UniProtKB/TrEMBL annotation:
It is found in: Cell membrane. Belongs to the cytochrome ubiquinol oxidase subunit 2 family. This is Cytochrome d ubiquinol oxidase, subunit II. Signal peptide: none annotated.
Length: 335
């Protein structure tokens, strides 16, 4: 494995980390539109909290997919073909969620406005759940031949571990969204988001314990990398506890940063367990390794120059956009 191959494996992990940190609270806010907002005025305010940001946050996913295609084409081909149906459903969910914000704002009747509110909520829920299910299924190991073709059955993708992973990621995104709502609003919405998270955090901790048990049973993470796996899991639990403490003490920034870092720790856990592989096969001889899946050295070298030339500009823009829209929104008065 070369340094550039290792670098691009790390960069793809960073891109997915950025996606789940930023898009995670977008998914949570999307789910909150119908599950949390009590009336049209509250739902308007909830959507406004992510209005300037949600489409920009999705760029992290597009960039991660593009980087995977360019730097590790064999990884891209195996993952996207083997998980085609799940990725198709994710795409449909993201499309419905994306158009729902615009269509809802232009609907003249309550019936259609409610329809697009449900589209935002269910699209966000399904996208978060399917992402969690896909990545959890992937680290179990999949039936794969020597060419990287996946021959999965229904239970390859849908099983107890993948379902728990999907629920856990969905709940983490919802909690992260409520923490963002506490940062961006004042009044009843902020107070209610805090009250909900005080209830949801104990549920999440139970879910994390169940996830760890199934991770131990169904993956080779503990057998191959026990020390790093346990370290990451301990950090995950500590971040969850810190976020819970932040919610209890109304330290909104602490709760938000900790819940976002919890999502990042899931990505770190997955990439740590994958290394030096990019796809895990049930027959270990067929697993795809980083050194075998990458593009040519010239391609990686050229991509590195382009990436590090553009990345500072993108980061400055993201920081600037969040700074411009940093002010809190007031909760609508009760009717």
């Amino acid at each position: 494995m070369t340094n550039l191959q290792f670098l691009w494996f790390l960069l793809i992990g960073v891109l997915f980390s950025g996606f789940f940190f930023l898009e995670g609270f977008d998914f949570g806010i999307g789910m909150a539109v119908r599950f949390f907002g009590k009336n049209t005025a509250e739902r308007d305010t909830i959507i406004k909290t992510i209005g300037p940001h949600w489409d920009g946050n999705e760029v992290w996913l597009i960039t991660a997919g593009g980087a995977m295609f360019a730097s590790f084409p064999m990884w891209y081909a195996s993952l996207f073909s083997g998980y085609y149906l799940i990725l198709f459903l994710i795409l449909v969910s993201l499309i419905f969620r994306g158009v729902s914000f615009e269509f809802r704002a232009n609907m003249q009747t309550d019936t259609w406005r409610h329809f697009w509110e449900w589209a935002a909520t269910l699209g966000s829920f399904c996208a978060a759940f399917l992402f969690g299910m896909m990545f959890t299924s992937m680290i179990e190991g999949v039936p794969m031949d020597a060419q990287g073709n996946i021959f999965g059955s229904f239970t390859t993708y849908v099983n107890w571990f993948s379902l728990v992973g999907g629920v856990a990621v969905t709940l983490m995104c919802f909690i992260h969204g409520l923490n963002f709502l506490q940062l961006k609003t004042l009044g009843s919405l902020r107070d209610r988001a805090q009250a909900w998270n005080k209830i949801l955090y104990p549920v999440l901790i139970v879910g994390e314990v169940l996830f760890v048990v199934l991770l131990y049973i169904t993956t080779d993470f503990f057998a191959k990398k026990a020390a790093s796996t346990w370290t990451i899991l301990i950090v995950l639990v500590l971040l969850t506890l810190i976020a819970w403490w932040g919610v209890s003490k109304t330290h909104n920034w602490t709760a938000f940063i900790a819940s976002g870092l919890s999502l990042i720790s899931i990505v770190v856990l997955i990439f740590n367990g994958l290394f030096p592989r990019v796809m895990i096969a049930t027959n270990s001889a067929h697993s795809i390794l980083i050194k075998d899946a990458s593009s040519s050295p010239y391609t990686l070298h050229l991509m590195t120059i382009i990436a590090f030339s553009i990345l500072p500009i993108v980061l400055v823009y993201f920081i600037w956009s969040y700074w411009v829209f940093y002010k809190r929104l007031k909760s609508p008065k009760a009717a």
